[in-house]
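Handout, tutorial session.
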Amino acid sequence: NVFDYIRDHLGYRIELQKLNMPAKLHASTENPLKLELTNRGFAPIFGNHPVYYVLINHAGKVTEFPVEANPQDWQPFSPSDSTYTPLLHTIETVIPLSDDFPKGTYQLGLWMPDGGKDLKYNARYAIR
């Protein structure tokens, strides 16, 4: 019913659409990443939330790569669009890996912590 729809779309609902990246990341070279997402909610993200790609190794060590993106700009749709067509937002960056970056298998993540120094590493304040 309509109440379920409203409940499921309150606030922001960030949804991955597509990720383009090399099959393997290589040290001492540029590794381009392009992520496309939509916001299926009714509102954009509020507050200061920097965006990072992170690589997580098998031991849980995290390496952060800051990205030039502002989640506050991720509107669900154009305000003048009467059809409410979801907007596609793109995050493009290059992950530079140094020559001495440890080889191995990594997980790739998108991390949007709180912008405050004291809350950056507090998961309760990060975008999930």
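The second record follows below. Compare its token runs with those of the first.
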Amino acid sequence: TLSHGEPSLWKYESKGLRLVGRLTLPTNGASRIRLSPDGLVAAIPDYWLSGGGMVSRVTFVRTEDLSVIASPELCAAPHDAVFSPSGDRVAVTCSLSDELVMLDTDGFRETTRFKVGENGDSPLNAAWTLDGRHLLVTLTTRSKFVELEVAAAMRQTSQVMTGDQPAQLAIAPGGSTVVVANRGSGSVTITTTDGTRLTEIDIPGAHPHGVAFGRDPSVAYVTYEGDTRTLGGVVAIDVDTGEILWQTEVGSFTLGVAVLP
């Protein structure tokens, strides 16, 4: 996703990084990409901070042909929209209203919403645990993520401290490793769902933002936004050793990343 200027979604082949599709989004901004478990649908929230608290959208796109399926208005500045492991629900974090909105993927309609943290905590991103019973949510003003039990009444079960201004996080497939991009401290935190601190790695680019795993649980892909003088891009990190495997520039304000199955 590219957020500023003309918000858009770009699709590349991994071999040779050949551009194979581009969609201008029906939004004022764009945040990270989230994929349904089968990879057929992408969700892109409209992180419209300059809207002054106006309600904005999450756009759902068919990945095969980049056609828009739905674009419901939900809340002010939604930043993440993550599918449950079963694919029947989507959890949306609302950064300006400190809420978590749950959608049913049958029609992408809202089913319920919950308050997360306290006023001004700014929940940015979420990740489902593999069993679909808990969500991890970053609170950017608190430098931590919290674990929430998904039930009729949401409740916090734990919290884990991270680097400064945690943005996005991802749980490794088939494991408990959690990678958090720390926008403020220019690093990623590699930890576990129970809070065991493993390591923190500096990123060779300004403002780390997005995190995604493919099938390999040992490799995390992390975007960095760049700044007024440098382009944003993507790095691949070996989460076991902390080694940066490769790096490529993409464009100004590179935010989201996802790996197709």
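Points raised in discussion: The chain has no helices and 23 strands.
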